[in-house]
Write a structure and sequence with these properties.
The complex is a heterodimer of chains A (191) and B (311). Chain A is mostly helical. Chain A has two domains: 94 residues; 75 residues, Winged helix-like DNA-binding domain superfamily/Winged helix DNA-binding domain (Arc Repressor Mutant, subunit A, Orthogonal Bundle). Chain A is built from ten helices and one strand, in the order ααααααααααβ. In chain A, helix 3 packs across helix 4, helix 7 packs across helix 9 and helix 8 crosses helix 9. In chain A, 34% of the residues are buried. In chain B, the strands form three sheets. In chain B, strands 1, 2, 3, 4, 5, 6, 7, 8, 9, 10, 11 and 12 form a twelve-stranded mixed β-sheet that branches. In chain B, strands 14-17-16 form a three-stranded mixed β-sheet. In chain B, a hairpin with a 7-residue loop joins strand 1 and strand 2. In chain B, helix 2 crosses helix 3. Chain B is globular. The chains are: A mainly alpha (191), B alpha+beta (311). Chains A and B meet through helix 1, helix 3, helix 6, helix 7 and helix 9 of A and helix 1, helix 3, helix 4, strand 10 and strand 12 of B.
Chain lengths: 191, 311
């Protein structure tokens, strides 16, 4: 049903993307690096690896990023000494994530819901029609009486926005709140 | 990065994120022309970070598919807004009798209560006055005129107003597609489309489950509700459409699923048991799976009329 590239995207979306914020926080401590560059390179390295066999994606993601930072410093003419010290102190790999560190699907959805609420109305409508309702770009265009070109551009714009949200948001990735047994979101009496 | 920046795959001044988003949206529209394909390849080859930005944009695109669980499909495939009058007894019996593939044993004479049980196969859809119920393998369903009860196992309910299905301590009124599973200790219900109203026995408080939500009730503990990702929903719904979806699942576990649904049993040697596979297979074609596993894992396959031996 999915080709290899789709499977890889799904895997990255499920196991890597949710940890980006945590990794970026750790990367920020290192001087003279561009976190975006490191993250982008890490995606390539992970996609080229046997990602399906990775058992602790967050720790793997972090170690890839750390290696990339190290490579960057090896090539740099001036290496910030504090960063190098940090790097050495940082060699302990992440242990298996505890339950609190595992990002809950529901929490991810809440994040997405908040993020798309900030999109301009038309951009949001198009994204919802395409990704939530499953209409094709052509059908979205017909429904909103706009050109397909606009649909494509607005979807790209929504993606850029979401990309920014994923890299900048200060989400706390814990599930404490989610773990509490609770009842359905809407409680209503049967008419 | 400017918020109002125009994003286009061809825009030379676009940042890697903008260009990656542009290409992802373009690919979603339809296949690329030869020149576009060339332009994309050129851009990807220019810098390893472009490739990373592109992979990340595609991952974000996939993640945005989770919006479906929040907003649901436009219209549930089965949802009749108007109440359907109760079906006459005679038609009910005709419908019940039509399910000839099943072992149907009337529980008590003279009452419209039938016990349906499946062995190693999925049942044909059982028609009730308010929709259909399909039983998974090794499951039992008690069907009455007013309501049905899943005694054990799993079923898929396609219901409209009036459909009542019970499982364990819960009573469901689904309008749409509902997956139910019931074991002596736990009841789990997943709303695939439409909505489901539900309540506990001896309680008049109703809750609503929307498409993509799942409720589990274990013993006397409070019910637990969670939302499923689209891919989780597909995996859970797979059996009811005759599919087996394996995502990084061990050979032993895939074989045991096939063996529950088929006469012809798959045997996996210990050396292969922990190897993992991902793929979508037809539940009642263990032969196709065995051939695929043979090719992918470089295993050997011996076939007898009763077994498929992989080693």
């Amino acid at each position: 049903m999915f080709n290899k590239a789709d499977e890889c995207s799904i895997w990255l979306a499920t196991h890597i993307l949710p940890h980006e914020n945590h990794i970026r926080t750790r990367l920020r401590r290192y001087a003279d690096i561009d976190a975006d560059d490191i993250i982008h390179e890490a995606y390539v390295t992970i996609a080229e690896a046997d990602w399906a066999g990775i058992t602790n994606p967050r720790a793997y993601f972090m170690s890839i990023c750390r290696n990339l930072v190290m490579q960057h410093y090896r090539r740099a003419r001036v290496v910030p000494v504090t960063s190098l010290a940090l790097m050495q102190a940082d060699t302990m790999p992440d242990a298996m994530p505890s339950a609190e560190q595992v990002v809950h699907a529901r929490q991810e959805m809440r994040f997405l819901e908040k993020a798309i609420a900030k999109l301009p109305a038309r951009c949001r409508d198009i994204l919802i029609l395409r990704r939530a309702r499953g209409l094709s770009q052509r059908e979205c265009a017909a429904q909103l009486n706009i050109s397909e070109n606009i649909v494509e551009k607005q979807l790209a714009r929504a993606l850029v926005f979401l990309s920014k949200e994923y890299s900048e948001s200060e989400r706390e990735m814990t599930v404490d709140e989610e773990r509490r047994p609770r009842l359905a979101h809407s409680r209503k009496r049967q008419p | 990065m400017r918020r109002d920046a125009r994003v286009s795959p061809t825009l030379a001044s676009a940042s890697p994120e903008e260009a990656a988003a542009g290409w992802t949206a373009r690919l979603d529209k339809g296949p690329l022309s030869a020149s576009e394909q060339q332009a994309l390849q050129h851009w990807l080859d220019q810098d390893r970070r472009h490739k990373g930005a592109f992979l990340r944009a595609k991952a974000i695109w996939q993640a945005s598919g989770r919006l479906a669980a929040l907003h649901g499909p436009t219209a549930p495939p089965v949802a009749h807004p108007t109440p359907v009058p109760a079906l006459p007894r005679r038609r009910f019996f005709a419908a019940a009798a039509a399910a000839a593939l099943l072992l149907a044993t009337p529980k008590r004479q003279g009452k419209a209560n039938s016990l349906y049980a499946t062995a190693n196969a999925v049942s044909a859809p059982l028609h009730t006055a308010f929709g259909t119920i399909t039983l998974d393998c090794y499951s039992k369903l008690k069907m009455g005129l007013q309501s049905s009860r899943l005694v054990t196992g799993r079923c898929c309910v396609l219901g409209r107003t009036g459909m009542i299905v019970k499982a364990g301590n819960l009573i469901f009124a689904p309008q749409g597609r509902l997956l139910l599973s019931c074991s002596p200790t736990q009841v789990t219900a997943t709303s695939i489309s439409g909505t489901v109203h539900l309540r506990r026995h001896h309680s008049d408080e109703w809750w609503t489950l929307n498409a993509g939500a799942q409720i589990s009730l274990t013993g006397d503990l409070p019910p637990e509700v969670r939302s499923l990702l689209p891919e989780e929903m597909e995996a859970q719904n797979a059996w009811s459409i005759g599919r087996l979806e394996a995502r990084d699942e061990s050979m032993a576990s895939i074989a045991s699923t096939f063996n529950r649904y088929n006469q012809r049993q798959i045997r996996v040697s210990p050396a292969l048991a922990n190897r993992k596979l991902t793929g979508v297979f037809s539940l009642n074609q263990p032969e196709d799976f065995a051939l695929a596993a043979q090719t992918i894992l470089g295993a050997r396959l011996t076939q007898t009329p009763q077994t498929l031996m992989l080693y």
